[in-house]
Amino acid sequence: MEFASENEVAAAGQHVSALTEALNQVIFGQEELVELVLTGVLSRGHILLEGLPGLGKTELVKGLSKTLRLDTKRIQFTPDLLPGDITGNPVLQEVDGRREFVFQPGPLFTHIVLADEINRASPKTQSALLEAMQERRVTVLGKTHDLPQPFFVLATQNPIELEGTYPLPEAQLDRFLFKLEVTRNRVDTLEKIVSHRELGAEPEVNPIMDADELAQVLALVRRIYLPDVVANYIARLVDATHPETSSASRHIRYGASPRAALSLASAAKARALMNGRINASFEDVRFVAPAVLRHRIVLEYHARVEGVTPNEVVRSILDEIPGQSAATPKVMNTP
């Protein structure tokens, strides 16, 4: 595989900078959140946004779809939503003089799916997303239907402490590249929102890229160089999330899967491109690690009782595991 050149990365970086600037005008005071959302998209991953209602999660996703000129459908998850309501159902129709079942695609058949308040749907309906998120296809009555490309699920959820919610199972959480926490706004940000927003009015966003341009950038991300020492660092980080492998792992019951390691590598490459670099670095991995790992580790009961959070465990692992291992070369080679 031919690695990305500096000229290619610089050209793509201009598009990404324009996307970043546009999304920062959609949601104020959340620059790191915007950077992580774009990193997730450039990694071809699905993103789970968690936060209290009214913090701008849905507006951010809608703004992203406008800037990328991608088809978007919104699914409002409710307790009575059925799997067929999102995947689609066969409908009995008359075809060439015969009556037969014809598949009618559901709202999953789009580029960006806004799964709003995903944890308000029943586990049966949540599980209907598993095949779509992993394999970009759905199977209904034994027939498989491919989804449009690119395909992203950007889901929002309220904290599980709120009434009327169903915690997402670990198998589905593992399908999300990132879990991002949307925090409340500072006073100066609230003042800006009050001065520049009207209740019920959506912010205007200009298109930045189309599907073809996005496809070129996504292909370029895959060509970003991942040095062996960075790959080794990723492997050691994921290994440290398992019991008896680090001091912080005493709080962990189950650690991250190999999918987490692949997610770290993809996200590190995407962030390198966003910063105009042709190779991923230790700093890229450290930046995306909390978003990749926080939802992939299951804490022991005693840790939850003591108030230990996944974020604290991930930070402890990052502090403990050095970027450079004594067993790896000291020189980071570039292509």
UniProtKB/TrEMBL annotation:
Please tell me whether the keyword Hydrolase is annotated for this protein: yes
Could you tell me one molecular function GO term of this UniProt entry?
Answer: ATP binding
Which SUPFAM superfamilies does this one have? P-loop containing nucleoside triphosphate hydrolases
Q: Does the keyword Hydrolase apply?
A: yes
One Pfam short name = AAA_3
Sorted keywords for this record are: Hydrolase
For this protein, the Enzyme Commission number is 3.6.3.-
AAA+ ATPase domain: residues covered: 43-186
What name is this protein filed under? Answer: MoxR-like ATPase
Which species is this UniProt entry from? Haloferula luteola
